[in-house]
């Protein structure tokens, strides 16, 4: 409704201006012109607010761009972040990781029938990390396969039943660790990040808020050094539909956050 009123106000201001300069005076348009103008305002508002698949917000003072896109994460170019658990459990075939989870889909797509290779690569990567499991949130292991780079980042804990869970604090720490790792070891690729914690992580936070959190965390971390020229926050189409994700609202909110 706000968009309709804004457009109507602009049209009415134009009409008043034309009337003032005797270009198009009131006696030249019908008494029901108000209804026509309001109808045009609604039509224009619907047009400009039509469903879209992507919005982007440039952040000039950081030299980066943040995009929020409704898409399949695995179809996005650049490096892809895969959220995982703090012990880096990766056994999908044995039922320890759900095949429907993001990590399960990653394993099925890129390590079909060969998950032991993924487990071995994770083991080698963890040997370079300090401490022992469970690892700190944000611990990141790079996996390169099929010509793509994937960053497996710890952001959830597993309970005794093997179910993952995350808190908002877990996600914030995971993002901090991810940014630091990519800054130090990445190659300034486009970086695609899912809505961490909102699926199997059972995070009870609106999808739009998580997108804002990821974007804000990325921009703030970029002040300490370039991470990537472009961050793509990816929302799965089913999530976008099920939870009525409004990209226009997210874009407006991101603009407000980045202007502070």
Brief overview, please?
With 260 residues, the chain is an alpha/beta fold. Helix content is 42%, strand content 19%. Helix 1 crosses helix 2, helix 5 runs parallel beside helix 6 and helix 6 (207-222) runs parallel beside helix 8.
Write the layout of secondary structure elements.
Layout: H1 2-20, H2 33-48, E1 54-59, E2 64-70, E3 79-85, H3 102-110, H4 115-127, E4 140-145, E5 148-158, E6 164-165, H5 168-185, E7 191-194, H6 207-222, E8 230-235, H7 237-242, H8 247-259
Parallel strand pairs: 2-8, 3-5, 3-7, 7-8
Antiparallel strand pairs: 1-2, 4-5, 5-6
Helix pairs in contact: 1-2, 5-6, 6-8
What does this entry look like structurally?
The protein folds into 2 domains: 1-49; 54-259, 3-Layer(aba) Sandwich (Leucine Aminopeptidase, subunit E, domain 1), CATH 3.40.220.10. 42% of the residues lie in helices and 19% in strands. The chain has 8 helices and 8 strands. Strand 5 and strand 6 (164-165) form a beta hairpin. The longest helix has 19 residues, at 2-20.
Question: How would you describe the shape?
Answer: elongated
- Tell me the CATH topology of the largest domain: Leucine Aminopeptidase, subunit E, domain 1
Distance between the termini: 26 Å
* Low-pLDDT stretches: none
Structural class: alpha/beta
Share of helical residues: 40-55%
CA-based gyration radius: 24 Å
Assess the beta-strand content as a share of residues: 15-25%
The sequence of SSEs as H and E is: HHEEEHHEEEHEHEHH
CATH architecture of the largest domain: 3-Layer(aba) Sandwich
Going by CATH, the homologous superfamily of the largest domain would be Leucine Aminopeptidase, subunit E, domain 1
Largest sheet geometry: 8 strands, mixed
Average pLDDT taken over every residue: 88
Number of helices: 8
What is the CATH C level class of the largest domain, in words?
Answer: Alpha Beta
* Strand segment tally: 8
């Amino acid at each position: 409704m706000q968009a309709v009123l804004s457009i109507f106000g602009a049209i009415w201001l134009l009409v008043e201006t034309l009337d003032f300069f005797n270009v198009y005076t009131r006696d030249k348009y019908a008494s029901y012109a108000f209804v026509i103008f309001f109808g045009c305002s609604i039509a224009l508002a619907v047009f400009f607010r039509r469903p879209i698949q992507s919005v982007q917000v440039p952040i000039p003072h950081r030299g980066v761009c943040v995009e929020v896109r409704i898409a399949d994460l695995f179809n996005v170019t650049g490096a892809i972040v895969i959220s995982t658990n703090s012990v880096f459990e990766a056994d999908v075939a044995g039922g320890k990781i759900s095949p429907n989870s993001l990590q399960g889909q990653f394993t099925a797509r890129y390590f079909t029938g060969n998950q032991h290779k993924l487990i071995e690569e994770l083991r080698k990567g963890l040997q370079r990390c300090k401490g022992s499991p469970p690892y700190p949130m944000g611990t990141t292991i790079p996996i390169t396969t099929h010509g793509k780079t994937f960053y497996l980042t710890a952001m959830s804990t597993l309970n005794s039943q093997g179910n993952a869970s995350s808190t908002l604090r877990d996600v914030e720490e995971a993002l901090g660790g991810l940014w630091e790792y990519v800054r130090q070891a990445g190659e300034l690729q486009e970086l695609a990040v899912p809505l961490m914690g909102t699926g199997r992580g059972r995070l009870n936070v609106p999808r739009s808020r998580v997108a804002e959190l990821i974007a804000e965390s990325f921009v703030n971390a970029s002040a300490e050094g370039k991470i990537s020229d472009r961050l793509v926050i990816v929302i799965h189409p089913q999530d976008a539909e099920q939870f009525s994700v409004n990209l226009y609202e997210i874009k407006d909110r991101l603009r407000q956050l980045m202007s502070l």
